[in-house]
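Hi R.,

Here's the chain you asked about this morning:
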Amino acid sequence: MRYSSQTIEALLASPPNFGGKAVYKLVRTSRLYEQIVQQIEESILKGDLKAGDQLPAERELAQRFGVSRTAVREAVKALREKGLVEAYSGRGTFITDGTSQAVRQSLDLMVKIGQPEGSTHLAEVRAILEPEIAALAASRAQDSDIATMREAVAVMDRAGQDPDAYIEADLDFHLALAEAAANPLILSLLDSIVGLLREQRLKIFKVSGGPERGQFHHKRILEAMERRDPDRVREAMKAHLQQVREDSQVSTTKRSPDKQ
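And the predicted structure, written out as tokens:
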């Protein structure tokens, strides 16, 4: 399923009637954010909003509901805590299938409890999933997916020594591949390990030459995607994951003396 804002934009711009009542109503009582949450939850339960639909920008939601941006911000926060929406840096907030957060929490706990084996397990899972995700994406990607990947690579180039900017763009790059595969289960699987990937990338960023090696492989993957070549992008992803694994091992080795 493609991420698209068409469904919710249509609902908010011209709310359809169900039994003579509009889907959304202006909120005028106390605890405004809870009522916004309730209305969006009802739309999800009715199927008017589906996994992958994008919420409008904060300012537009505030205008549509007739509330302040603060109320909208609190509502989105509550929806995220419920696992009903997810925010992606630079792309916006999207309706989820409600299961990603539960899966993510379980995986986070498993890996943390199982350290240091957890990092090895994560590397094995990525080696199984991501090369085939990339190959599938190469045959299904739309121009917008490629554009998102290009922008992510450009942001990483500009990031310099800013780990937050680099890591968020790195995650965007890999999530763009998952989106390009056009399979909601694939996106949910990768989304469920985003938190773990962020921690892994932070460690690699501190390894000398780690970001530069990562960029070399990102650009090879991007080039293969631009050629729409599944075999080449699969091999490029395998090489990238091997580089990540090696840099992760260097990071672990450097930290081990401090633990003794």
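Residues 137 and 181 are 4 Å apart (CA to CA).

Let me know if you need anything else.
M.
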